[in-house]
């Protein structure tokens, strides 16, 4: 509607101008080089407008002719750039498809056509990696460090190579440099945290862990467990340095974060026993037993109540049964205390209950011990031991990364060095741990007693 009105307005202006000129007739005379030309004004005006039009058209033709080579060059560059980007895209597709020869071919083509190294170096590096040429890939990644716009990508490529080759020291240095370039990158914070933890730099790992949680790289609940593990390792480190107060403080913080985490409770209770704080230690065991019964907790509790007579120890262990009545560990703990007190009926009752819940080799061994002590029946004891050989294995600390087993908990797997990978379960295929002398110094730590 507006455009139609605007058109009508322009037509009206032209008509008005024509009427105005028609009402004011006149002539135009031109005298030049002895010639005299006379014409009506409207004719002179029309000739002038036509001349201006011809002049403008000539100017455009002349300018187009002069600029033709420049336009041809610009068109050629555009075509070249289009072909370069097409080659770059085909190279990325080849990378995704695992076609290394095509990827390298397209990388070279894109590099020639585009002449923009920041766009093609990453493709070249990835193509080299796909072909297994890590040396060439490293050269590309290193070259990318020289340009601010590609420095972080180059750092990430070198970091990935270092992790893949198992060079944790180099990987840690690269990760810290990369954080200086992009401090809030989630994947980088998660990687840096893993590397610091595997290197045993517990204090630095704890700080990085907090950043990783805030950046969303690590879920909050998982981060709580990781922090508890870090605090436990800091507790062991403080104890090695003779800082008993710091060791106890870190263990207490770990227990407060995860009251149901047995290693934290065991560590805290043992430090409290060493400080002659038996009642707080007993409360720690009882609190954790309600959430997660564990034989190491029973061992600590046995040490706490060792000063009492045998009958009193049985009554105290019965408190654990009340905390977790449906756990086989509760009944096994009371049964062992009852055998020591020679309360044979009490021991048999709890062992039978443990058998109902789920027998393991330890259950059968305690039954053998019971028959030897109560009835002096060596044949029955041997029968129980034979059953133990075929029974499900007792749970042990098992690495979720490599399957190695350990009878002592640690923040690092002694076999593969994975952090926070040990879980309490029955092993499937046992992978022996390295001997303590074979563990790299950065991984070595005192075993939990």
From TrEMBL:
Identification of the protein by name: Heme biosynthesis protein HemY
Residues passing through the membrane, by range: 42-62, 83-100
GO cellular component: membrane
Localization, UniProt: Membrane
Highest taxon in the source lineage: Bacteria
Taxonomic lineage of the native organism: Bacteria, Pseudomonadati, Pseudomonadota, Alphaproteobacteria, Rhodospirillales
UniProt xrefs under Pfam families: HemY_N (PF07219), TPR_19 (PF14559)
Location (main, coarse): membrane
Domain HemY N-terminal: 26-132
Keyword annotations from UniProtKB, A to Z: Membrane, Transmembrane, Transmembrane helix
